[in-house]
Design brief:
This is 2-oxo-4-hydroxy-4-carboxy-5-ureidoimidazoline decarboxylase. By secondary structure, the protein is mostly helical. Helices cover 64% and strands 0% of the residues. Helix 2 packs across helix 9.
């Protein structure tokens, strides 16, 4: 995702803005509702709207958003999912034991909760992400759903900030 700045983002057509927002979050409803609030007076207005829309989404649409996120530790192609590849870059350096444990815990998590383990992985090493995953397996489904939504909001915010950072 190329940084374009808020002024250029606001100057795009609705369709172009939606396309960029799909790179942030794969929920079509989220992207459509965020775009409906444009143009944005400042970046904070966009972030606030994005957060508010995400908080209002029904679970089925959150599941659509999760479809855009690969498993933590899975092979992620920068060509197919550049945001996830960047965010999980430190996982690639992990030893095989940690990668194997992540894969096993990911499956356990998905069996328990019914969706992919989501965490804001940016800048975090694999062993830290594994520890967080292990801890979250103790959550009840309602608590975990809330935690996952918060993590999705953090990821969306990070991606929006990257999108709006002025081009270099």
């Amino acid at each position: 995702m190329k940084a374009i700045g808020l002024k250029d983002f606001n100057a795009l057509s609705d369709r172009q803005r939606m396309h960029l927002l799909f790179e942030v979050c794969s929920s079509p409803i989220w992207a459509r509702r965020v775009v409906a609030g444009s143009p944005f007076r400042d970046a904070e207005a966009l972030y606030d709207r994005a957060d508010r829309i995400l908080a209002e989404l029904p679970d089925a649409e959150i599941d659509a958003a999760l479809d855009g996120h690969p498993r933590i530790g899975a092979s992620v192609s920068a060509a197919h999912n550049p945001s996830s590849a960047r965010e999980q870059a430190r996982v690639a350096d992990a030893g095989e034991a940690v990668k194997t444990a992540l894969a096993a815990k990911n499956r356990e998590y998905e069996d328990r909760f019914g969706y992919v383990y989501l965490v804001c992985a940016s800048g975090r090493p694999a062993d830290e992400l594994l520890a967080i995953l292990t801890d979250r397996l103790d959550n009840d489904p309602e608590t975990e759903r809330r935690v996952m939504r918060n993590e999705l909001a953090k990821i969306n915010r990070l991606r929006l900030e990257r999108l709006l950072s002025e081009p270099t």
